[in-house]
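Retro notes
What went well: the complex prediction finally ran end to end.
Inputs used:
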Amino acid sequence: MKGKHFIIYLFCALALSSTAQITNKGFKIIPLGVKGGLDESNLSSYMVATSNSDNFICLDAGTLNAGLQKVANSRLLKEVSGEAIQKQNIKAYFISHGHLDHLSGLILNSPNDIAKPVYALPSVIDVLKNNYFTWKSWANFASEGDKPILGKYKYQSLTEGIEVEVPETNLFVTTYSLSHVNPYESSAFLLRNNKDFLLYLGDTGADTVEKSDKLAKLWTAMAPLVKNNQLKGIFIEVSFDNSMPDKALFGHLTPKLLMLELNKLNNLADSKLRGTKIFVTHIKPCSNCEENIKSEIATANNLGLQISYPEQGKAIQLNN
Amino acid sequence: MKGKHFIIYLFCALALSSTAQITNKGFKIIPLGVKGGLDESNLSSYMVATSNSDNFICLDAGTLNAGLQKVANSRLLKEVSGEAIQKQNIKAYFISHGHLDHLSGLILNSPNDIAKPVYALPSVIDVLKNNYFTWKSWANFASEGDKPILGKYKYQSLTEGIEVEVPETNLFVTTYSLSHVNPYESSAFLLRNNKDFLLYLGDTGADTVEKSDKLAKLWTAMAPLVKNNQLKGIFIEVSFDNSMPDKALFGHLTPKLLMLELNKLNNLADSKLRGTKIFVTHIKPCSNCEENIKSEIATANNLGLQISYPEQGKAIQLNN
């Protein structure tokens, strides 16, 4: 009888473990801010977790509190205040570049946060260290730089192309360098949950305008994942509509340039990009900009891509 | 007949001029943000004009766009968008100190603004120049510092105690140095419209806690204006409730310390502070902080002062 019980137990355990592994795929994304400037209450920031977890990393942190209040009010998570969600559910920050609209929320909300790591490329950590957490702009809540060092946020220096594991999240992140008014460096973060991937790009110009090959290199790295249907989504910026001349883009994309770059990736991926969902971020507010950009993208979408627009506080599930 | 017409004309002109002078008193204040941290959509910023003008100066700029949208929606001014109000109605910025929650909106909204002056003490201009408008944190839209210099915002260096005239506004401003975690410097701005005055304090600790005499000096300068019923209002911070110990105040006031300081001013002003309206700003959000602070101030208000709490987008008239 003992032997029989053991076999039943073993069977159940294996079945449960296998179910857990099957369900542990895909991603859950909660945008805390989606716009590309001006409106302080809605600037680039995206919480991402594996689909079966409420332990998130936060990709950029332009707006935190105003977005977290919306998340708390809509009861997307069990914590009932924005502050509690920031403390408990965000396990690490990844900052794509040093511009204020991608990190203002991190600085402003640091006094009420708890200790956690801040991941970034060395050039981005330099900006945090020399310009923000300096005792001139703000108390130094970070782990290096001007003294006294309060040490709440531990800088974690990223190396391009090297995957890091983020504690408590089951997420793995590989970073790629982007060009945002050459030679200013921005970053793309490739997130992995088991065999599923999600790509988030910080601000970037097109290779043709930036005189750069950084997006070409990124697309080469992404192509196999697209081919294998492993890249579930791409978050990529379109800041201006097509009326903006190249010389006034300041390291950003337009609908035309977005489609130019996505066509390159699609070509490298045996025309399989339709299997990857595209999320357009960072639209800069102006009277008709959002409408124009959406209309121009719809017109230019010759590949039949699944393109949508994240909204602040509206969760996105990527499980397919 | 010619002589009679001239006398009538002269009489009318004198009467009109006299009426204009009589009505040109007091102030109109539109708070763009009132909180002391965390919530990016509602951080310290106050538009102030003479009561008969829509040409404002902006005292601090923690939040601009989110507040300006509210102002536009409630049709407080004739311009129908936040961006138009920023461009047309704000003629100059006065920044009290270099902390991000007092200037984030200025940086973030600089791309869409038009040319205008930014007034601050030299130590504050140094922070703007070395930490924000640096091409690392943000494009250099200012008039000095890292090249290329875009020159949209002309730095205007203030000297303590020296009154400056702000073009296009009929406002005159005198600056006083404050202590915000000694020796970090903050500022108070004394605005004058003819013979009426308004005092705005950036972040400040109490003299007893800061080991400073800066508030004592400020109160000495303000006392004659209070006695003469010329000081129409004081905007002053209370960041924490009385439960916060002195060592954790980080250069801020509590209700207890506010009343301690206001009693000093009242004593210097022959107990006439009741004629000056007190506006409490910069409450730091937490679950019960706002209620606690209001209750503690009401209890501690032994002088019977007129104390109120500005709200974002709600205009305040000070004409008495």
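What we learned: Residues 2-23 of chain A form the longest helix (22 residues).
What to try next: split runs per interface for comparison.
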